[in-house]
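Recall that a protein's primary structure is simply its ordered list of amino acids. Everything else, from secondary elements to tertiary packing, is in principle encoded there. The following example makes that idea concrete.
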Amino acid sequence: MFNMSQFQNSMDSFIRENDKSLRRIFSGKIKGNFLTAIKNSVRQMLGPDIFRYYDMQITNEKLVSTGFEEPDFDICHHIVGIHRSNLIFNTEEERLKKEKSEDYKNTLVNDVITNIKLRQYGSVFFQKQVVSRGENFNYYPIPYDLFVLCVRMNDLLSKCNDNVYISLIAAIVNKGLAALTLLEGNFFDCAYPICRGITELYLKLLILLDNPNTVEHFLKFNEYDLLKSCCEQKYSTEFNNAYNNRINKNHKSKSEFLHFGWLDTIDDYHSDNIRPYSIGGIISYLKTKCDQEEQINTFDEIETLYKMCHGYTHGSVVRSKYPLLHYFEISLMLYYTIYHTYIILCDYLKVDTVINDIDILKKIAKDVAQLYTQYYARSTENFELYDKLNKL
């Protein structure tokens, strides 16, 4: 005969053991009792809707392949990622105040549920185990948001006819996912060269969108580059003729002209441009087209971060003492490029930017505001404080 009391006792015992396991798994990253309390609140608020976001159906395919989704494990990852991002550069007293605040706990629960509603484009793709141990930065707000944007763009791009703009956006998305996957695995130095490449693609996309008549010349120079790099291993006669007739004769680098000579077809490009055949030249030109100081500042930030990649790209910087610094820099580089690329693609396809009823642009605006505040507060002292106080 079925005994309801025994069944309930068994369930309560199972939940207690489950919570003990979760506290052990995430020990050192968050206070255990706080973690399970927030997890229980998330589950309570989700209620039956949890089955919309986690496929817990038992199938033969799951038995022989990827296994089963464990909601509590994923929910706890989200709690840890969001909470730890909120604690960056907080003192011990500030952490305790947050963890005792009902307002903070309610906000944290709501933020976790928002991320879960986006997990179809986010954490469903994350690794259960990573090779290099460290922070789970992909569960921090901005990397998570950007991963969601990339997967959403992948879905949209699968329905697009190919052209130069779509090709550039697809390349940005693919490299964006690669950089975020490296961030997830704590392979920070490997992510910088990819971020550098994304920045170059993004700036080319911007200039081609504003100068559609240049597209044909851009593609022609891509052909020159392909012939030089992969086929003939030398400059073609057609390219040499273009080089000899370049607008800026003071610039002597053939290799730089190979990558940027197509810019000669933009009428006002060479006005006061000191080094035109370069990424710096493109940034200088785009800044002349800005009508707001904020836009100019953004390009200045992009250029600073782009130059910062140099040491990692060429192997002169291998390791850093502060992983949090890499989280800041990689997140900002990808934010500046992927966020706007998403807006460009949605506008191009005339589709809504909202994802699963979440206003993702509004969410990112809130998340990046916090990131900016923390990034500008960075210092050796604050990094040391973070490392000391966030080993819980």
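The mean pLDDT is 90. The chain has 19 helices and no strands.
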